[in-house]
Design goal:
- The protein is an alpha/beta fold.
- The protein has a five-stranded mixed beta sheet.
- The protein is globular and about 70 Å long.
- The protein starts with 11 loop residues before the first strand and ends with a helix.
Length: about 300
């Protein structure tokens, strides 16, 4: 069930962070040296049953040495019941090993590298990937989450939200003009569909991550100054900025410095979008520090495992 034996004189820490499209496990020693990295498929705890969750962890354990402690942060982990499920599955795969179960927001925030101590005490993670959420913590260890209600109730500014808005916009334009707009033709080419009507059956069988993947086409059209895409991207940017400010307001005074950290593929893979979002946040809250998350969120899980041990 576990990989190669570890060196007897060193402590090993396993950090696993799972999102809507994939997961990453990192094994590091007590000196912070990376010893192994494993990528997995989707790891949203709400979308996996207990057997699938255990199988996910087993696939990681089979490729890495046994750790002395581990931390697991998964998307969708909101309740105590979710954390208990993560802990129970981990106990089956790593029996007797201390485990810190949490969500992917805490692990991402813990991954912020502040070795020089220059980051403000209040930090707000602005996450936009398949889903979206803002999560912050202050010096008093108070945490606040804004958004993250899932793709049916929320996730404004996420890849899924952007893609769904685009699909609705192009079919509305088709109904109005009897002609598919440029963004619609781009989407059909991506999906290899011949007619707009084919979108109905495609949507009925597509999962959340597959739909979210269409956001890249919206960004590509935006770069080409497509008007429909521009409006959608503007709405996404506004939603993320407003949620980030609401989160910060509950953690810090009006003039207190706040560090906003951007994470998630929708942000990190779209530098122009990320730059504009940063400018909007600084306009709404002058004096803010804005930066991308420079390390994988799984490093935050490693840090949590080491802290708990």
């Amino acid at each position: 069930m576990t990989g190669k034996p570890k060196h007897p004189s060193r402590l090993f820490f396993l950090g696993f962070e799972g999102g809507g499209t994939h997961g990453v496990a990192l094994l590091a020693d007590d000196r912070g040296s990376l010893l192994g990295r494993v990528e997995t498929g989707p790891a949203n705890v709400r979308l996996l049953d207990d057997g699938q969750l255990a199988a996910l962890f087993r696939s990681v354990a089979a490729r890495l040495p046994q750790p002395d402690a581990l931390a697991i942060g998964l998307a969708g982990a909101r309740s105590k019941a979710d954390l208990k499920r993560i802990l129970a599955a981990a106990e089956k795969i790593w029996p007797g090993i201390p485990c810190h179960p949490t969500n992917d927001l805490e692990t991402a925030l813990a991954a912020v590298d502040d070795t020089e101590g220059k980051s403000p005490a209040v930090r707000v993670l602005v996450l936009s990937g398949t889903g979206s959420c803002c999560y912050g913590r202050n010096a008093a260890d108070k945490t606040v989450k804004v958004g993250g209600w899932g793709h049916l109730l929320g996730d404004q500014g996420s890849g899924y939200d952007i893609a769904l808005r685009a699909l609705r916009a192009v079919v509305a334009a088709y109904d109005r003009d009897n002609t598919l707009p440029g963004l619609g033709r781009r989407i059909l080419r991506r999906l290899r569909l011949n007619e707009p009507d084919k979108l109905i059956s495609w949507m009925q069988s597509a999962d959340k991550s597959l739909i979210a993947g269409l956001a890249t086409e919206v960004f590509a059209a935006w770069q080409k100054r497509d008007k429909i895409a521009a409006e959608i991207i503007s709405c996404a940017r506004e939603s993320l900025a407003q949620n980030a400010i609401i989160c910060a307001r509950q953690l810090a005074g009006p003039k207190s410095p706040v560090h906003f950290i951007f994470a998630g593929g929708t942000l990190l893979k779209q530098p122009r979008f990320m730059q504009q979002l940063g400018a909007q946040i600084r306009k709404l809250r002058p004096g803010s520090i804005v930066s991308p998350l420079e390390r994988e969120g799984a490093w935050g899980a490693v840090a949590l495992a080491k802290r708990d041990l």
